[in-house]
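Hey, I'm writing a tutorial for new members on how sequence and structure tokens pair up, and I'd like a real worked example in the thread rather than a made-up one. If someone can provide the structure for the chain below, I'll link this post from the tutorial.
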Amino acid sequence: MDAVEGSSDNVESTLKSCWRGDPAAEALIEIGQPSVQAVVDAWVQEKEERRRELLEYTLREIVGDDVAAFRMERATQSVKVPATQPADDE
């Protein structure tokens, strides 16, 4: 179990060092709570993995790990997947 926790700490440390100093992330972190919904919305819509990581880092810095995980999970669940059209057999 300690190895897993240590790995998590390393990932978090890497994320922080990678994104610390990004002007947009730092501005959103400074704004704080009022920026949370915009960060979540951008995270949901973003396709590029590196930008999603930055948005996740930003959200975690604003609200903390547990709340960020909850918000991202809720946002993922609320994304509507387009229904597929049934084949027309006529």
